[in-house]
Amino acid sequence: MTATLESLATCFQGIWPAQLFTCSLDGIPNAAYLSHVDYVDPGHVALSFQFFNKSRRNIAENPHALVIVLDPDTRQGWSLRLEYVRSETSGPLFDRMALRIEAIASYCGLKGIFKLRAADVYRVLAIEPVPEEIGSVALLARERGGTIDPVFTVKALQDLSERIHHAGCLETLVDAILEGLDTSLGFRHSAILVPGEHEGVLVTIATRGYPENGAGAEVRFGEGIAGMVAEARKPIRISGLMRGMLYALATQQALKQPPALTARRIALPGLPNPESQLGIPLLVRGELVGVLCLESEIPYRFHEEDKASIELLGSYLAIAIQNMQWQERAADHSLDVPAGERAVPSAPPASPPAAGHEVAFYAADECVLVDGDYLIRGLPARILWRLISIRDVTGRAEFTNRELRLDKSLNLPEWKDNLESRLLLLRRRLEQKCPAIRLVPRSRGRFVLEVEGAVRLRAEP
Description:
single chain; alpha+beta; Pnp Oxidase, Chain A; 7-stranded antiparallel sheet; 6-stranded antiparallel sheet; 20 strands; 34% helix; elongated
């Protein structure tokens, strides 16, 4: 059977680095590793042009090259005899290749530095097998006990759909989505992020498979795979992630460019040694509802069919999340807020016993610290401070989403305030960092602030 580029699709996932061989006009050879070889059409491939100046000079003199790629499933190596055709610095091919490279570069603080300069398109003159290539992706997966391929059966999708339909609120919905992806489809590590309070920021509301829930962890657009997906609004799949990161770090050392410094914030959960990642934008009529991220320690965990299936599933998940947000907002408007719930008497109750916890609110940074440890910032911080202040003054502990929306001191946007997702991440952040303070749902749009022991409040400018 004659090999075709279509039959070599698995070779173009970047799990094992490709090797590029060129030769100058006077016969001096040069070898280099490639970060990416991309399928263009049945007769062409594209090579990433970044820092291979010697290879590029050789191609300018002699347009013929040899590339060796490795199939991660069969461990068979293939040599592609190529002839240079053109370079593209814009368009769909360039954008697709650049997006993947930028996603890897963002992990190393090299976004905007380690980037694609051009997609060099080559005509494929011949495809030949290479004997005895070394590789053990399939063996590695078996040794780790991982199931490589999820089963996108009708039964699995029905199970996931049933979980989603039984969800009664945003919190149970996002948990049902991630649980279904795990138990029905085999994706063990996942996260859902939604647009944050500030433009160009994602905030984590649910994770699965990690020691910490990561609620409140923020990612800027263009940062990591989640930020890149949000920025481009396109799915990104990365295989052989650690190899790509090592490649980027080697380039960083060559450029003597220190990694970008990041501000102190809640850490986004992640595997210590990810080998594969898949990010999908959750879009409804062009609106970004959120980002779904999956990762694995198994190389080539997400095959082409996985990407296509999850991308289709993402549209359904986006609609489910948006509909739940609308339902909860509509339910809030149907609740009457008793007049007494809006009044705050001036006289505080009797002095409480010695404080068990200190809750401090820093107005300038809009952040809350509990016993000196950072808890959360932004709108969730303002909400917590408002709730616990009312409880401290009035003794009232039951609240409604509706009254929070009517509270002008919180500065909620009049449209698309995403209050439910903010309450969700506040509740989970408290569960993780301060379980003595809890937001306990009583019914849709109504909850109770429970506090164990006494709490001392401190307001800072």
